[in-house]
């Protein structure tokens, strides 16, 4: 499926003098880069971009942007860019002979909207993604009834939803726009209204999208923002960084790490620093801590573990904010597991000088118990995909705030070092990893047994 992107406008309220709105930079990406990368994450690779004001600069920018990407980007030029956006759509008429996605270069939106819209069973010539929120000044309002658009426009009298600027169209949409242009109505909304008169325009309600994201362990409502002002950019920045934060974390991650991580991400996003580079830096500092534990510099090593804890969430957030997730980044947690447990082993080896094999055994069992907890969660996730184990029920959500993970363990280490009793740090970590393993294994068994019992009941009732 191809994608049409309208990028002809000037955006005088937002863009600097001589620049164009699609090239406004925001958290390290221009608005039009965000639109293309979000569409690409939904599987779209062929784009037609309609340019207008400062079009040569936009086209040159996108040619450079696409040098290292496997995308097909073509251009159409709208010389009448000062007029309404329906004319920009018509410029691409000869390119689209099957259904296509229509997007605005100045809209920031949740990829889930586009993914579900692409998969939508289209029965009309146009499907418009709509929001049920309260319209703001300048929003295009929509009146729908029984899933069909009745009326659309900025100044219609009655409305019950808002145009998000995200469309799934058939080529017939061009004939509707041509009909309204002949009547000197050149807004895209005019063409949609003409289709609505023929009962040929329907809505896709984004508020019906499941807001829970298992990988993020939290509810995130499907979002979109029409960026027209600097205030809109500020709002979008806050929203994207907040949405990049995972939910149901432990207390240290929630109340200490999160604000620090968000501050770092907001700065790094505008620099030429990649998430993978942050991951490498994090690992370098982590293994420096391991080296220091091994040689007995316990206080410095302990403090470095907190630095690692702050940085460890930055790479993931940065990749989500900059739409830069990679296959390489998927193994980051494996490296986390490796360096975290190298701390406890190094500490155990150092303490073995005074306590013989006891600290080494303690650190060994910490690795075993943590591995066991991880595989219990893996088994749970393979059977029950709707939510991760740590967020499945109220008991799990409560225990997740204190469970045996890195942020709990590094607090134990720091306290033991400050009290000059580091051996008790390993004892506490051992005990807490054992409790966590017992908790997660018992909860996994309980939930999986309930699932098996339910399947048995369904089979018996079908007989």
Structure description:
The protein has helices at about 30-40, 55-65, 85-90, 110-120, 170-180, 190-195, 230-245, 250-270, 275-295, 300-310, 315-320, 330-355, 360-385, 395-400, 405-420, 420-460; strands spanning about 1-5, 25, 30, 45-50, 70-75, 100-105, 105-110, 125-130, 140-145, 150-155, 160-170, 200-205, 210-215, 220, 225. It is elongated. The chain is α/β, with parallel strands linked by helices and about 475 residues long. The protein has two domains: about 1-215, Alpha-Beta Complex (Spore Coat Polysaccharide Biosynthesis Protein SpsA, Chain A); about 245-455, CDP-alcohol phosphotransferase transmembrane (TM) domain (Four Helix Bundle (Hemerythrin (Met), subunit A)), CATH 1.20.120.1760. Helices cover about 50% and strands about 15% of the residues. The strands form four sheets. Strands 1, 4, 5, 6, 8, 9, 10, 11 and 12 form a nine-stranded mixed β-sheet that branches. The chain has a two-stranded antiparallel sheet with strand order 2-3. The chain is built from 16 helices and 15 strands.
Quick structural summary:
With 463 residues, the protein is an alpha/beta fold.
Key traits:
463 residues; alpha/beta; Spore Coat Polysaccharide Biosynthesis Protein SpsA, Chain A; Four Helix Bundle (Hemerythrin (Met), subunit A); 2 domains; nine-stranded mixed sheet; two-stranded antiparallel sheet; 16 helices; elongated
């Amino acid at each position: 499926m191809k994608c049409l992107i309208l990028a002809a406008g000037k955006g005088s309220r937002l863009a600097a003098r001589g620049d164009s709105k699609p090239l406004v930079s925001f958290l390290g990406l221009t608005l039009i880069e965000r639109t293309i990368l979000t569409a690409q994450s939904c599987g779209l690779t062929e784009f037609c971009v309609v340019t207008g004001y400062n079009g040569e600069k936009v086209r040159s920018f996108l040619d450079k942007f696409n040098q290292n990407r496997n995308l097909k980007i073509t251009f159409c030029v709208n010389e009448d860019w000062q007029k309404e956006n329906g004319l920009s759509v018509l410029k691409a008429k000869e390119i689209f002979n099957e259904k296509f996605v229509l997007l605005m270069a100045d809209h920031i939106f949740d990829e889930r909207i586009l993914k579900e819209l692409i998969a939508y069973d289209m029965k009309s010539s146009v499907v418009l993604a709509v929001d049920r929120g309260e319209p703001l000044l300048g929003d295009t309002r929509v009146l729908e009834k029984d899933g069909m658009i009745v009326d659309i426009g900025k100044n219609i009298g009655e409305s019950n939803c808002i145009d998000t600027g995200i469309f799934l169209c058939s080529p017939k949409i061009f004939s509707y726009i041509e009909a309204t242009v002949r009547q000197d109505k050149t807004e895209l909304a005019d063409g949609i209204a003409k289709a609505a008169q023929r009962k040929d325009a329907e809505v896709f309600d984004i508020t019906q999208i499941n807001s829970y994201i298992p990988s993020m362990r939290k509810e995130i409502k499907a979002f979109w923002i029409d960026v027209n002002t600097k205030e809109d950019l500020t709002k979008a920045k806050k929203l994207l960084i907040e949405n990049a934060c995972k939910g149901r974390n432990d207390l240290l991650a929630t109340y200490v790490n999160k604000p620090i991580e968000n501050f770092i991400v907001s700065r790094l996003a505008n620099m030429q620093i990649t998430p993978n580079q942050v991951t490498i830096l994090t690992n370098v500092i982590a293994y420096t801590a391991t080296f220091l534990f091994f040689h007995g510099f316990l206080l410095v090593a302990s403090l470095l573990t907190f630095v690692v804890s702050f940085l460890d969430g930055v790479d993931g957030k940065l990749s989500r904010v900059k739409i830069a997730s990679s296959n390489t980044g998927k193994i980051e947690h494996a490296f986390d597991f490796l360096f975290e447990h190298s701390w406890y082993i190094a500490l155990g080896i150092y303490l073995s000088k005074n306590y013989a094999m006891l600290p080494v055994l303690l650190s060994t069992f910490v690795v075993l118990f943590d591995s066991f907890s991880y595989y219990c969660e893996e088994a749970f996730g393979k059977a029950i995909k709707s939510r991760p184990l740590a967020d499945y029920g109220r008991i799990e959500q409560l225990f997740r705030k204190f469970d045996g993970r890195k942020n709990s363990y590094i607090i134990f280490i720091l306290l033991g070092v400050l009290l000059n009793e580091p051996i008790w740090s390993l004892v506490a970590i051992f005990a807490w990893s054992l409790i966590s393993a017992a908790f997660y294994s018992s909860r996994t068994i309980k939930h999986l047994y309930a699932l098996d019992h339910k399947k048995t009941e369904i089979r018996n009732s079908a007989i």
